[in-house]
Amino acid sequence: MDDQLPQMLRSDARDNRDRVLEAARRLFSEQGLGVPMREIARRAEVGPATLYRRFPTKQALIDAAFTDELRACSGIVRDGCADPDPWRGLSTIVRDITELNATNQGFVDAFVSSYPGAVDFAAHRSGMLRALTGLWRRAQQAGALRPDTVVDDLILMIMAGRGLPPGPPTLRAAAARRFAALILDSLRASPTTGPLPPPARVAHHASTNS
Amino acid sequence: MDDQLPQMLRSDARDNRDRVLEAARRLFSEQGLGVPMREIARRAEVGPATLYRRFPTKQALIDAAFTDELRACSGIVRDGCADPDPWRGLSTIVRDITELNATNQGFVDAFVSSYPGAVDFAAHRSGMLRALTGLWRRAQQAGALRPDTVVDDLILMIMAGRGLPPGPPTLRAAAARRFAALILDSLRASPTTGPLPPPARVAHHASTNS
DNA sequence: ACGTTAACGGACGCCCCCGTCCACTTCGCT
DNA sequence: AGCGAAGTGGACGGGGGCGTCCGTTAACGT
């Protein structure tokens, strides 16, 4: 809650805290939540003890690290729900969240399932869920969204985004765009399907060399 | 080499080997590949050494355990590709694989990414991929499948299936059915969309107790 | 400049998991 | 029944990750 008023820390402490957070954000985004605390400490050029003094547990660090992305996520939903054209708003939400997802490997894990306990997360989630439900209804009333779908379908799709193949960020982003476009086409009521983004070459794990 | 021929094992050894395989299959399916070897041994009422004598490494056990599912997967693809109606064949493949996937938590991981080294896996995969490519072309020529899609899109969707929310088998299966139906609708060329399976209530992780 | 005190980080304990070793047991054959 | 070999399981070593302790360092006030 009080988050220790970082400006009351000694200058070096504040500096180190910032570097830790930055390293955590980068490493979590790149490699998911499995990154060892040691690795983050090393990347921040800090000893493990320092890291643990600012963030008593790994969960605390995860929460702090993803606060920004959480805000971004809330913003995406808010903006999309504010769009007068509900379908356009929904499309934007799906695309942006899917991309956020692909760019930040661990975000969905941190947010939706991984560890319980992050209070802010729960609050944000229920708020977003409520807003999305409203948007969903409006989109269906406008005849843009299939009437036989529910918000849970969206959640399902977002969760499914977790399973997208790993790989370099460029590939991940391409796969995410393609995925989002396909999802949207499956939710659309009218068959007015626009052009798809380029197909994503999925990493076929070239175990047979060649 | 000669370590095969399980019928040449002593009767108790053969018995234990079978129990180990059975336990491995069950636990991997239920909880994914993260299950400790000890747990499998315990479940099979066997010491760790016994387990390791039959399957020198965890990978070996995984390979052996998923041989059946691999065969099932191949069968699904073969049957689907043999269907004179390419769209119906494709639908069946998507539905069945997605369900296989939901039922066997670790299967896709074992097959597509997890560990390299399983020779059989690679062979099966390239064969299935070739067959699927043919089916894909036929479905597109028949006008049932969107012309701007590629086989990689299917792979993408199957991979995405890994991210479906965890939970009791019943929920997982429901989510998988819903997911498969939505995928199929996004790949279909004609807007002749049939009724969807019941929406899957996604586990909202009730962290806020109540 | 200098002492106080917050902050630092290397070293430590703990736990879990993989894979191995060895003294004992059980099967199978005669 | 008896004997040898195959088989078994408890105990062990190695590695890695999380979180903690304590001697040392360096920032801040006077």
Number of helices of chain A: 10
User: In CATH, what is the homologous superfamily of the largest domain in chain A?
Assistant: Tetracycline Repressor, domain 2
Kindly report the greatest chain-chain contact and the residue count on each side.
Answer: A-B, 45 and 44 residues
Largest sheet of chain A: none
Task: Give the termini distance of chain A in whole angstroms.
Answer: 54 Å
Work out the number of β strands of chain A: 0
Radius of gyration of chain A: 20 Å
Q: Could you name the CATH class of the largest domain in chain A?
A: Mainly Alpha
Question: Could you state the oligomeric state of the chains shown?
Answer: homodimer
Structural class of chain A: mainly alpha
| CATH level-3 fold name of the largest domain in chain A | Tetracycline Repressor, domain 2
What is the general shape of chain A? elongated
Helix content of chain A: 55-70%
Low-confidence stretches of chain A: 205-210
- Tally of domains of chain A: 2
Molecular structure report:
The structure is a homodimer of 210-residue chains. The first copy, chain A, is elongated and about 60 Å long. With 210 residues, chain A is an all-alpha fold. Chain A has 10 helices and no strands. The longest helix of chain A has 23 residues, at 119-141. The first copy, chain A, folds into 2 domains: 11-65, Arc Repressor Mutant, subunit A (Orthogonal Bundle), CATH 1.10.10; 67-187, Orthogonal Bundle (Tetracycline Repressor, domain 2), CATH 1.10.357.10. At the A-B interface, helix 7, helix 8, helix 9 and helix 10 of A face helix 6, helix 7, helix 8 and helix 9 of B. Chain A binds a DNA duplex (30 and 30 nucleotides) through residues 9-13, 16, 36-38, 41, 46-50, 52-53, 56-58.
